[in-house]
Amino acid sequence: MNKVRAIALCVSFLMPILATASEGEAPQYVIENGKVDKGTYNGYRRFHGTCHACHGQDAAGSSFAPSLTESLKTMDYATFKKTVMEGREVKDASGAVNAMPPFANDKNVTKHLDDIYRYLTARANGGLGAGRPERIPK
Ligand code: HEC
Question: What is the pLDDT of residues 57-84, one digit of tens each?
Fold first, then answer.
């Protein structure tokens, strides 16, 4: 077997393993009868501690920043994490900067990123409504 084929074989063998490793880690929310698990509830609280100022009450968006209930319909966990940790700067046509700040140094965010993701995906895909959710009773 030549070198190129050996490498190609190696890559095709490893790709599915790498793909499952990164996709498998996406945190999951639980909704039962309109009530949510502890993590999703914590995500609601953390989101409204830090992110709502720009992304709006219930993640519905504002004139500053997009609705995350829309973004999280399609955004995967890795992209979400990278965007929140590193932030993002975009210049519009007039040259004004529209910025998503980086949160890598904010423990109120980094420690709860999985739960914020749970809350946002529950809003985007799980049919979770606006307002403070109720918790699933123990
Ligand atoms: C100071 C205002 C501000 C705060 C606070 C803020 N964001 Fe953002 N965020 C933005 C702006 C503005 C954008 C859009 C940047 C662009 O145009 O790409 C954005 C974009 C994003 C995106 C990408 C959306 C997309 O569709 O591509 C995600 C995800 C996100 N923010 C998550 C968060 C989370 C989670 C928090 C709280 C930890 C947060 N943001 C706090 C301003 C903010």
Answer: 999 999 989 999 999 999 999 999 999 9
The alpha carbon of 21 and the centre of ligand 1 are apart by a number of angstroms equal to 26
Q: Whose CA is nearest to atom 24 of ligand 1?
A: 71
C-alpha distances in angstroms, 103 versus 2, 51, 83, 86, 113?
47, 10, 9, 7, 10
Q: List domains and CATH numbers for the chain.
A: 28-125 (1.10.760.10)
The whole-model pTM stands at 0.85
Amino acid at 97: V
Residue 101 near residue 87, CB atoms below 8 Å: yes
Report the amino acid identity of residue 21. Answer: A
